[in-house]
């Protein structure tokens, strides 16, 4: 996997220039991934993103329902897309997260989430996939309706991000953070489609809506969430229910996906090209020290009511 302390080429966007000049630590732009692939597939609108546990590839989903695999062993070749995932009902896929407890190089699985809306249930899919040297396949092996794990949705702006909190183990299901675009709130849900409790709601870090990506460091206990409207990343401490840091890392484009590879010290950012070709950039990343003090005093969003079996639209966000 190519990693360097210096960019291999001149940055081409405002956010990359800021990062390369050291203005937005702890990120430093390194490269783009699959530029020719995206040029050949300008209709793809990249959304959620996650990195395989062995660091060999990225998995993305799109607004049109595709699943995309990017080879990290060679940024220029070996990529693959699937236009229709067997077993997925509909499109508008927004989040991707891998449960290491359900992933092995010889038996790979990934979770993807359908956004949902006021008249369309949000669905979490468990997908079995294969990816090797530019060849790929994928099919749904399980699914869970998240309607009863989050508040009812008022509009089409539903689940926009998916990030792993804890892996499945010993019969216990995986737990994920799901971010709601409408409110900027983040909820804990299990791979079985259940809420972990009415106190498992966190403000996404900027005091507003438009959260579009999330990833979690179990080692440090921090949720890193990307807030598109602010072109920034917020670092949230769920235990204290507060933000401990913010970093501006945005282009003014439509950033839709965020993944941090803490082991290999890399950050991946996906941009929805809105028909002009998507972009995936990689940054070298150093975990900041001293992220232990709250920098805001916003109240908790806990105590929310789940949608459950009630008619959609008769409930409200917590």
What does it look like?
With 318 residues, the chain is mainly β. It has one domain (26-285): TolB, C-terminal domain (Neuraminidase, 6 Propeller), CATH 2.120.10.30. The protein contains two helices and 20 strands. The chain has helices at 14-20, 35-40, and strands at 27-32, 46-51, 57-62, 67-71, 80-82, 93-97, 108-114, 123-132, 135-145, 159-166, 175-180, 185-190, 201-203, 211-217, 222-227, 232-237, 242-248, 254-261, 266-272, 279-285. The strands form five sheets. The protein has a four-stranded antiparallel sheet. A four-stranded antiparallel sheet has the order 2-3-4-5, with no helix packed on it. Strands 6-7-8-9 form a four-stranded antiparallel sheet, with no helix packed on it. A hairpin with a 4-residue loop joins strand 18 and strand 19. 47% of the residues are buried.
Strand content: 35-45%
Through-space gap between termini: 43 Å
Architecture, CATH level 2? Answer: 6 Propeller
What is the mean predicted local confidence, pLDDT?
A: 84
By DSSP, the count of extended strands is 20
Largest sheet, if any? Answer: 4 strands, antiparallel
Q: Share of helix among residues?
A: under 10%
Low-confidence stretches: 2-24, 309-318
Order of strands, widest sheet:
1-20-19-18
Query: What's the gyration radius in Å?
Result: 18 Å
What's the name of the CATH homologous superfamily? TolB, C-terminal domain
Instruction: Please provide the ordered H/E string of secondary-structure elements.
Output: HEHEEEEEEEEEEEEEEEEEEE
């Amino acid at each position: 996997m190519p990693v360097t302390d210096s960019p291999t080429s001149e940055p081409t966007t405002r956010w990359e220039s800021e990062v390369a000049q050291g203005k937005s630590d702890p990120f430093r732009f390194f490269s783009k991934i699959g530029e020719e692939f995206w040029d050949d597939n300008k209709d793809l609108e990249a959304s959620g993103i996650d990195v395989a546990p062995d660091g060999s590839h990225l998995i993305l989903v799109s607004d049109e329902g595709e699943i995309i695999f990017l080879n990290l062993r060679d940024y220029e070749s070996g990529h693959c897309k699937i236009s229709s995932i067997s077993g997925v009902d509909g499109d508008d896929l927004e989040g991707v997260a891998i449960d290491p407890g359900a992933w092995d190089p010889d038996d790979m699985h990934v979770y993807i989430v359908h956004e949902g809306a006021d008249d369309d249930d949000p669905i979490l899919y468990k997908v079995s996939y294969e990816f090797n040297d530019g060849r790929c396949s994928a099919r749904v092996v399980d699914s869970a309706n998240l309607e009863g794990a989050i508040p009812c949705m008022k509009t089409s702006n539903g689940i926009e991000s998916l990030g792993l909190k804890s892996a499945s183990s010993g019969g216990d299901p995986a737990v994920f953070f799901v971010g709601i675009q409408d409110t900027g709130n983040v909820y804990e849900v299990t791979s079985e489609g259940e809420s972990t409790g009415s106190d498992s709601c966190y403000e996404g870090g900027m005091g507003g809506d438009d959260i579009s990506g999330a990833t979690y460091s179990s080692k440090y206990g921090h949720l890193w969430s990307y807030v598109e409207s602010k072109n920034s990343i917020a670092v949230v401490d769920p235990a204290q229910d507060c933000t401990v840091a913010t970093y501006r890392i945005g282009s003014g484009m439509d950033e839709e996906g965020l993944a941090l590879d803490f082991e290999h010290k890399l950050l991946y950012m996906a941009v929805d090209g809105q028909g002009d070709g998507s972009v995936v950039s990689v940054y070298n990343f150093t975990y900041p020290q001293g992220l232990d003090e709250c920098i805001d005093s916003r109240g908790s969003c806990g105590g929310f009511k789940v949608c459950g079996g009630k008619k959609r639209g008769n409930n409200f966000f917590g």
